[in-house]
Amino acid sequence: MAWIKTISDEEAQGPLKQLFDAALRRAGRVFNIVRVQGLNPPVLKAGIGLYQAVMFGPSDLSRAMRELLAVVVSKTNGCHY
To answer: pLDDT tens across 53-67, in order?
Structure first.
């Protein structure tokens, strides 16, 4: 298994700290996928924006259906996220 450097809550500063704090408010914790993207805060911000647009933006699919599709894709890809 590869190990990628991550930034802890205590190390986060400036815009990254704001993104981590927002993740904590949304999910109750900062997931590792967010920490890895935290190595490049503009990429993390864009990734969160994409996720929010896909999951919460206008769509013919319900929120539940979007979540179900995400689970099926993750399972198919062998990803526990």
So the answer is: 999 999 999 999 999
- Distance of alpha carbon 48 from alpha carbon 21, whole angstroms: 13
Do residues 31 and 22 lie in contact, with contact meaning Cβ atoms separated by under 8 Å? no
pTM for this entry: 0.78
Q: Which of 28, 27, 38, 30 is nearest to 4 (CA)?
A: 38
Residue 44: CB atoms within 10 A of its CB come to 21
Question: Considering only CA atoms, which of 56, 54, 35, 57 is closest in space to residue 44?
Answer: 35
Q: Which residue, 28, 26, 30, 35, is CA-closest to 6?
A: 35
